[in-house]
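seq:
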Amino acid sequence: MTDTPGRGHLLRLLGLGFGIAVAVGEMIGSGILRTPSLIAAEVGTAGLILALWAFGAIHASLQANVLAELGTMLPRVGGQYVFVRRAFGNATGLFVGWAMWGAHMAGLAASSIAFADFAAPLLPGIANHRAGLAVAVQIVLYGTNVAGLRAGRAMQMGTSLLKSALLLAFATAAFWLTPNLTPPIDHHTATGVLAIAAGYQLIRGAYNGWHAPVYFAEENLTPARSIPAALFLGIVATGGLYLLVNIALLHALGPAGVAANALPYRMVLDRMAGGGASLLFAIGAMITVASCANANIMMAPRILFALSRDGLLPDALEAVNRGGSPYVAFLLSAIVSLALALSGGFVLAFGLIAILVTLASLITEIAFFALRRREPDLPRPYRAKLSPLLPALAIVLDAVLLALFAMADIRGAIIAAGLCVLCVPLAVMAKRVPR
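struct:
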């Protein structure tokens, strides 16, 4: 690792501030803006809705407890792929790396689709051209990041801070400036297990990105200190904002009101500030999802870079420009994310995230125990708390959730499997071409 980029080398210039910013930026996006109404329709009771959002933070913390040890033990770019490959070899490592890359592609597509939806009040004529706008915003963000790591870092830190402040301001204003419309008695019928699973699948997608600091471990100045702190502080900050926002929405509209409005934020703002509030919401929402899209754009090519550097994908993906960006990996990522954005299906794209991430997380948690057994002498600046109890609990939880997600979203499970298979021809190419 050097301060001058080259083939197979990235810049080392990131710290704790960026780690928190990229975690928050990756999590807070189209999920918290678009899913509250969908979740309320599935679940229907205020207490259960809030319990599921709180559980999402606990679930992420259980996984972070494992990943913090792995990320500080092997601080290399590529995320979960690095640890799974070390534990189980190339084939399983490639599968997990590609699954996580697919999850980020789905997240980027969902964010850009949401950006186009939120732009409608500002650009009335865009209604029939939303796919084109979703593509355009991706092209702008890809261009910024290909210019170099410093440009991507500046955009991520600025937009993450701004959108966190906007969400906090909304939650505070909605709670204090709107009457409580939540009915005193909840008459919603009993919610089935698959309905709860479908609701939590969306919440799982909204929390996706807590692991972002690990993906930049090789570019971090002090990974042993920064990575664990960034992981847990990012989860705490985001989970707190998610709960505050949902409390505010439920306070103002009640579960039925949230479920009845695709964008409940807009209705609350209209009640507080009149019709002009819709324009304010559109601007804030566009900033929020653009920040999330930028985080996905920063992370996904680094997975391809890591796979290429280890000989599992064509070596062209290992190329790094003078700004420290793996630009060929950016190009391949752009092709796939733009294609997903052109589909225009937010729910489909967003639903893929939970399935792919949960699958990768499950394999990573198993790899944690394999590495503890096979390589106990590796330096571990951070050791998972209450091991083996909490890491084992994470495995059980992810295994159950993966089965429930697949049953609740069969189409999504099939498409996720198809995305994973796409890496096979590239892997074959990498083996046949001498490096």
